Amino acid sequence: MAKITIIGAGGYVFPLRLVGDILSLPALQSSTITLMDIDAGRLEGTASAARDLVAHYGFPATIEATTDRRAALDGAGYVIVTFQVGGLEAYAHDVQIPRRYGLDQTVGDTLGPGGVFRFLRSAPALTDIASDMAEVCPDALLINYANPMAMNCWFLSSLGVKTVGLCHSVQGTSHMLARQLGVPDDEITFRVAGINHQAWFTEFRRGDEDLLPRLRETMTRRHLGRAAGGTLAADDGDHSGMRDDNVYEGGSERVRTEIMDAFGFFHTESSHHASEYLPYFRKDADRVEDFIPQRWDYFEVCSAKATGDPNGDLLARLKEDLRPSVEYGARIVHAMETGSPTVIYGNVPNHGLIANLPPGCCVEVACLVDRNGIQPVAYGALPPQCAAVNRTNVNVQELAVLAAQTGDREHVYHAVMLDPLTGALLTLEQIRSLVDELFAAEEQWLPQFAPEAAGYGVADRTAVAAG
C-alpha cells in the first residue's frame, strides 16, 4: 500500500479523524500512515491514539511519527496538510488586531485580514513542502485541508504541486438543506460550483423534482420570517443545522437565506462564516446581532480546546464504531489505490472549469477520482450574479498569492483593501495601519517580507493567473 503522510498531525482531533477514515476502509487497513508535526508532544498524542486504534482492531497498518518533514515525505504517495502556522498565538493577532479597528471576524481564516495573514504565514512552509516533495515524492498528491483553502491551493498549484483542496461545506450544507425540506439525504442530487466557502447550489433535486423553488420558499419563511411573495410569515420553529465530528452549521441561517434571496441561490458556508465575506452583515454590533443572534467565535472555541486530551472522546467513539466521516480525503486515497471511482467536490485550478471566473484561480467543483487521479468536471458558466460575488473574493486571493510569490508588501495592502467587509468599514489609511500592525505582530512567521529576504519566492507576476 502507498504511504500516507499527514503534515500537522498534532492538531486538535482532526488528524485522528483522518486516520480513522483511512482505517475504516478495508482496502487501506495495511497502509503506512506517517504523522509529522513540529510539536513533538502534540504529535505523540495523535500517534499514541492512532496506534491504540490500530491495536484495538488488529489492523496491519503501520503508524509512524516524526518531527522530520523531509523524512515524513520521503516515498509518500499522498500528503495531507492540516497545519496552522503560528498556532493560537498567531491566530490571536489575526482576530484581535482587526477588532481594535472595528472589524469583527467570526472566524478570520478564509478572507479579510485574518485569512490573508494566515495564508502569508503558511506560504513559506508550503514552499518548503513543495521543494521537498519535488525531490523525495514527486508523484505524490497533496491533499490540502488547511485554510485559507483557495489561497493555499492556488499558491501550491503555482509551485507545480499536484494539489486538491478539501472542505466539508458542500456535503455539510447538502445534508442541512435536505433536513430543512424533510427529504432523505440519499434521495438528493445536486450541482454545485464556485469557490471554497462560497460555492453555489445551482441544482437541488429529488428524482425528477426540482427542489429549488421549495427550498427558497422554506428558507425564506423560516429564516427571514416572510413568505416568498414578501409578506410576513410565522416562524415554524425549525432552525435545524448540522453538527457532527467535523461540521458546524449555525442554527439560524438568516445570512445565507438573505444571500439566496438577493442572488438567487444558496451557498456552502454557514451563516456565521459567510457573514465575513460580504459587506452587508457585520457593519455594526446591532446589525451583527440582528443577523446572527447567537454569537459563535471560532478563536474562543479553539482556545477552549487547547488544554486536556484532545483525542480521548473521538478515540473512544472510533473504538466502538469505526466508520468514515463526511470528509473526502480517505475516499480519494481509496479510489486512486483501488480504481473504484468516486465523486468528490475539490478545490482545483480553474483551467476551463468555470467559464466566468478568472483562469487559474482556485475553484470548487465536482471531481471524478479513480486510478487516474483527480479529474475535475467542467461546470460551464455560473449564474452571472453568483460569479460576480465570487470575483469580489477572488480579487483578494489573487493579490495575496501574488504577495507571497513576490515578497511584495504592497500587494498585502492591496489584498486587504479589496476585501469587501474591510472596505465597507475602514478607510484606506486605517487599512494600511491595520496591516502594519499585523506585520509587526507576526514578523517572526513572515520571513518572505523581511528586508534581507528581498526576492524570497519571486516568480513571474503572470504566474498567479497561470495557476
Automatic annotation (TrEMBL):
Which positions bind substrate? N147, R287
Residues that coordinate or bind Mn(2+): C167, H197
**Pfam families with a match to the protein in the record:** Glyco_hydro_4, Glyco_hydro_4C
Q: What is its EC number?
A: 3.2.1.22
Tagged with keyword Hydrolase: yes
The record's cofactor note says:
Binds 1 NAD(+) per subunit.
Name the InterPro entries for this protein: GH4_Enzyme_sf (IPR053715), Glyco_hydro_4 (IPR001088), Glyco_hydro_4_C (IPR022616), Lactate_DH/Glyco_Ohase_4_C (IPR015955), NAD(P)-bd_dom_sf (IPR036291)
Give the domain of life: Bacteria
- Family membership noted in the UniProt record: Belongs to the glycosyl hydrolase 4 family.
Question: What's the protein name?
Answer: GH4
